[in-house]
Amino acid sequence: MDKEKIRDLILQMTLEEKAGMCSGADFWHTKAAERLGIPSVMVSDGPHGLRKQSEAADHLGINDSIKAVCFPAGCALASSFDRDLAKKMGETIGQECQAEDISTILGPAVNIKRSPLCGRNFEYYSEDPYAASEMSAAFIRGVQSKNVGTSVKHFLANNQEKRRMTNSSDVDERTLREIYMVPFEGAVKNGKPWTVMNSYNQINGTFVGESKEYLTDLLRAEWGFDGYVMSDWGAVNDRVEALKAGMDLEMPSSNGVNDALIVKAVQDGTLDEAVVDQACERILNIIYRYMESRDASAVFDREKDHGTAASVEEECIVLLKNDSDGNGKPILPLGREQKIAFIGKYAQAPRYQGGGSSHINSWKVESALEAVKDFADVAYAKGFDDAQDQADEALEAEAVQAAEDADAAVIFAGLPDSFESEGYDRTHLNLPECQNRLISKICDVQKNVVVVLHNGSPVVMPWKDRVSAIVEAYLGGQAVGKAEVRVLFGEVNPSGRLSETFPNRLEDTPCYLTYGKGRDHAEYREGVFVGYRYYTTRDMDVQYPFGYGLSYTTFGYSDLATDKSGLTDADTLSVSVDVKNTGDRSGKEVVQLYVAPVNSEVPRPLRELKGFEKVSLEPGEKKTVAFTLDDRAFAVWNADLHCWDVPDGAYKIQICRNAREVILETEVQVKNTKRPRQKYTANTCMGELFADPKAQQILGQMMGNNEQAKEMEEKSQGEAVSQEMLAAMMQDMPLRQLISFVPGMTWEAVDQILNALNA
Fold it and tell me: In what residue span(s) does the Fibronectin type III-like domain sit (predicted)?
């Protein structure tokens, strides 16, 4: 329906009907206006599968929803580093939404993984804003290609579960812009989501849902968002102020309480009715966008989609370790002829999704123990029951014996539901102690030990150096067992890469001193140094770095090239590199491009991810991978000028195996041409002036004409004052101090210099 028809509908609505349109009819539906033929549409949780509830609806996943297909969670999907895969998964979920008459899926969740303790990290994509931005935009494009909306969440700076409904995230402007806004900016600009969900929390003392700065000035005016903003469920503090700020739809229903406040505010003149009209127009535009593209013939093919879930997870699994046996052969992949023991509760009943609002009522679950029947005969021992995290000596003894009798033992370990979920944050990075104990005991009797992990966020591995191989499956969806077995036996070559750092210990994490501390305020004192930006800049050892992952084959890089060695911030830089499969089996490599400033006056991370591509290569095959970098690849946020700003200087273009391992690099010079000209004052330091060619010329002329200044400089070349000392002192000397140190200099002369500089 075009805008004129929608506006005509709004003109026919009563004030009460318009106020009602701005809140849900119930937990999952928008309100209908039957008198005008306006339909009600349904929204549903599920960035990794549908959680469509009909009766006894709730937001935390307590009550059952329809049988659906659970796909890999965000923590896994991001580790694929594959935009096409994210788009494919989105297309599949979009098709399911059409079949179930769901207008909008509530996701993706793109908040930054500030700390590995965040209880909801399993839903989130990455600690890196560029990776989260690119993967989420691809997912959005996939869903919306089926004419179903997405709702990017949780906007903004929602990085902990503790007091998430009232807490204030206290973040400086630069950090917000460079880290926490970027995934949303990329999702909005490149994915064009139909809706955005604002978060519960405050930022610097103001609820996001009441912030015109974020919901209108930034989201709409600057980024071009043209859909409607909905609240997170119950994230309304002051309904009238939220409406003024740009929060259009309150979810769920307030049973008319807040609708009445909107009506009253219009009637007493504290709210312009045009604001209500605008919110209704945005909501109706999305409702009719869906209704007019409704595909009543769409089918939810659960069996087919289960297969898709398996193929997606195959691309997400990360091989963290793969040592060789005594004969020089890597432990993985396993051989079908080997005598193998599968050990651990999660081999039979995998943990494959997180708890809370995204919990899927899975149509079926395919475990590794079930899937392995098509590959080999394996012995199985449960080994542990981590519900109470207490060792069971009988289960342990059975598992140890099975491992001792086998050629190789595969232990399926991970975090139980009680360790990570929406609603609360973790307090440590440990696996259940009963699991660590079992792994240690099995290592005592078996040298070929493989650990497969089921977890939504990093864990510490005290047994890391004792086991032969580690496979990170994350929360891989209902077909995780099939994907795991295909990787373990080499039917699939693992190609996932970590989208977050696995630290050595909790105390090493960037926000350790402040995360989860305090009652009403979360202080983001680490600034832009989040995740690998912190570890690499401090040269800190970690268990596994961001971008890390092994393969059953090997890859070589060569011929890194740029189309220019010098550029301005108005130019783009083309980068290419050749990558070759130097091993003996086909595989996929994630080519990672980082930008590293050589010398920066601004505190900056050592390097930052600015490009990635996943390429498939046959043995011996070589491909050229190309990237295009614009000014944002080199920019920082200038909080004084409130704009993106590219510092002049040299930058290294680095092709890396991961955030710590540089393979190839080259250097380019970048010059700023866009920065608004600085206004110089008497307190501007000489070093800043010397860095400005115009200022350098003016100062040189004026100082060169000052005979007393030249005489003073000549006399200073003695033992007490060296040339180096004089240069260092001048660097940080404000212009006004020339009066004290340059004979004959006056305030009138300083004013003349400033007038010339600022002309």
Answer: 589-659
Q: Please, are residues 574 and 625 in contact by the beta-carbon 8 Å criterion?
A: no
Burial bucket for residue 333 (CB in 10 Å: 0-12, 13-18, 19+)? buried
CATH number, domain with residue 478: 3.40.50.1700
When computed from its CA atoms, the radius of gyration of the chain, rounded to whole angstroms, is: 29
* CB-CB neighbours of 327 under 10 Å: 5
Q: Average pLDDT per run of 10 along the chain, which is 759 residues long?
A: 95 98 97 96 94 69 82 98 98 98 98 98 98 98 98 98 95 98 98 98 98 98 98 97 98 96 98 98 98 96 98 98 91 97 98 92 97 96 92 97 98 95 95 98 98 98 98 98 98 98 98 94 98 98 98 98 98 98 98 98 97 98 98 97 96 98 98 86 87 80 59 54 66 88 85 88
- Measure the CA–CA gap between 183 and 154, rounded to whole angstroms: 11
Indicate if 232 belongs to the active site. yes
Q: How close are the terminal C-alpha atoms of the chain, in Å?
A: 54
Same structural domain for residues 488 and 356?
yes
Q: What CATH number does residue 638 fall under?
A: 2.60.40.10
Domain with 664 in it: 555-671
Q: Which amino acid is present at 455?
A: N
C-alpha to C-alpha distance for 192 and 90, rounded to whole angstroms: 14
Let me know if residue 203 belongs to a domain: no
Q: DSSP letters along 506-574, please? A: GGGSTTTTTTT-SSSEEE-TTTT--THHHHHHTT---SB-TT--B-SS-EEEEEEEES-SEEETTS-EE
Which residue in the list 128, 170, 232, 425 is annotated as catalytic?
A: 232
Last residue of a domain, one of 636, 671, 706: 671
Q: Please give the tally of structural domains in the chain.
A: 3
State residue 28 phi and psi, 5-degree precision.
-130, 0
Question: Which are the contacts of 544, defined by CB distance < 8 A and separation ≥ 6?
Answer: 320, 498, 501, 502
- Tell me if 179 is assigned to some domain: no
DSSP state, residue 669: E
> Do residues 463 and 443 make contact, with C-beta atoms less than 8 angstroms apart?
yes
Q: Is residue 29 part of a domain?
A: no
CA distances from 190 to 137, 138, 272, 527 (A): 6, 8, 33, 26
